[in-house]
Design goal:
This protein is mainly alpha-helical and 192 residues long. It contains nine helices and no strands. Helix 5 runs antiparallel to helix 7.
Length: 192
């Protein structure tokens, strides 16, 4: 469990710098350059992610059960993760109304993904992992929206075609992940 917590502190800490120390971040980028900053950011993120995966895997080997989620939570998780994949796709597909409406569909997708996994898993490690990510995503979304309002950021209106592409890409990515990659990477086959 210790590796999981250390990994979360590193990973979420790195991803929180803009939220809690944006002036420091800007000064560091000015001091060392954008390329080196992104390199260090990526390296720290990768270290944190590896520790999260390793720590969560170890915790799953001897879980501390807090509750047994009802069967319906697994079906709800399937639907919510599909929504999460569409939102994440909307962050990268240009011209979506979802981005215009949410501003930060990637973070919204992470919130939905974390909530989905939190309700379907009743172990202490799952609560620590998915609960931490959910709290981080809620905070990041609120801070990002506040920063956008303060800066007067207005996202382009987007089109129905952009949304359709985001939905298509999100559904295809979800199918590939849910049916093939989740079992191979995570060791759990959510759909059989």
């Amino acid at each position: 469990m210790t590796l999981l917590v250390i990994g979360l502190v590193i990973f979420l800490g790195v991803h929180s710098v803009r939220m809690v120390a944006n002036d420091w971040r800007t000064a560091q980028i000015a001091r060392i350059g954008e390329g080196p900053w992104k390199g260090l950011y990526s390296l720290a993120s990768a270290v944190g992610l590896v520790l999260i995966i390793w720590g969560y895997g170890a915790a799953r080997a001897s879980p501390t059960i807090l509750w047994n989620p009802p069967e319906w939570t697994k079906q709800l998780t399937i639907v919510l993760t599909l929504v999460a994949f569409v939102l994440i796709a909307a962050a990268y597909v240009p011209g979506t109304r979802m981005k215009a409406w949410l501003g930060h569909p990637m973070v919204a997708g992470v919130k939905v993904w974390a909530l989905a996994h939190l309700i379907a898993n009743g172990t202490l490690a799952a609560v620590i992992l998915f609960g931490s990510i959910l709290v981080w995503a809620i905070m990041d979304f609120a801070v990002s929206r506040r920063r956008d309002r303060a800066a007067g950021v207005a996202y382009p209106a987007g089109t129905l075609a952009g949304d359709a592409i985001a939905v298509f890409v999100g559904v295809i990515a979800w199918v590939i992940f849910a049916f093939f990659l989740h079992g191979w990477l995570i060791g759990v086959r959510p759909l059989g």
